[in-house]
């Protein structure tokens, strides 16, 4: 059938149905018109046949071959409409997540499922007002030591830049049809788009993801998506602001830890952007948007546009990071845990989905430069507090820990 909204039906085996308005034929027609009103099927072709002799039998078989459905009673009519509906749902415009139940390959083993979705929202992770004149370093250190997480408000990034970035990313994800290529985009080297990528246990994650390198901007920008056409300009503007904000936060961490001034100045880069689109899910207790993980970064900055879903672990319990409009969530990554000799905590986190809300997030990873040697800062190591970590070059660490899963090599190449 060319036109998907057309249903071809053959009513068969009603006696004398072609001759005049036989009552059961009328009932069939009323039934069909009724179904048409309540579905988006706009065209039904009805043919009526009596089964009984060979000629009718052959014609019926031929019509069936052409895509006609044989109906004998009202239940069959209902089923035909339902089947057509399912077909229409699976048509080329339908997205992978438009499903009434969660497919099995999205459901991890019981122990890896989100389980209790009534996790409390953490009201004690610091929400730090960066416009305050003093006390910022202490608050940032407290959040980084106790939770590995804090949020910042009044950070100085104009709201328009945040809205533009979210809008252009939403457009990007909206444009990815059923057949959009996934994985590393060949002529773009480091730009990676995935739909329902895999968790470590091989089940699918309930998200779409876009990743690309960001440093130095002028060398990376041509690797990014060029549709929507505003993408490169809008995201470059966003990243310039993230660079400024992250440097400011790292300077305060530097001061709080008592490291030499400018410790991170020439050794940190906003290296990678990873944007996530988590559509609503029929049963969020069964599947995950993003499985539990630690960040390999120094720090990560997440803009979540006020939407919930991000959780971190505290004393063995998953806690929701509060959804504050215009705030940035900042978390400590593994590299900063090493440099601080575990004074600051890199904490496991994950994303759960929602039945009604879509989450769009922009994570930016501030990493050491690839050649940087990572080890606990000398001033933080002494006889009482010996070094807890071996020395390693950052790029070796990324390789050894397979930091970006299947895309580790592609991302390392793109960042070189
Ligand atoms: O907040 C999100 O949606 C995910 C952030 C994150 O943990 C990541 O991208 O690694």
From TrEMBL:
Family annotation (InterPro entries): DIOX_N, IPNS-like_FE2OG_OXY, IPNS-like_sf, Oxoglu/Fe-dep_dioxygenase_dom, Plant_2OG-oxidoreductases
Gene3D superfamilies from the UniProt entry: B-lactam Antibiotic, Isopenicillin N Synthase, Chain
Source organism, top-level taxon: Eukaryota
This protein's UniProt keywords: Dioxygenase, Iron, Metal-binding, Oxidoreductase
KW Oxidoreductase (keyword) present: yes
Domain Fe2OG dioxygenase: 268-368
Gene Ontology molecular function: dioxygenase activity; metal ion binding; oxidoreductase activity, acting on paired donors, with incorporation or reduction of molecular oxygen
Cited Pfam families: 2OG-FeII_Oxy, DIOX_N
Family according to the record: Belongs to the iron/ascorbate-dependent oxidoreductase family.
Name of the protein described by the UniProt record: Oxoglutarate/iron-dependent dioxygenase, non-heme dioxygenase domain-containing protein
Source organism per UniProt: Helianthus annuus (Common sunflower)
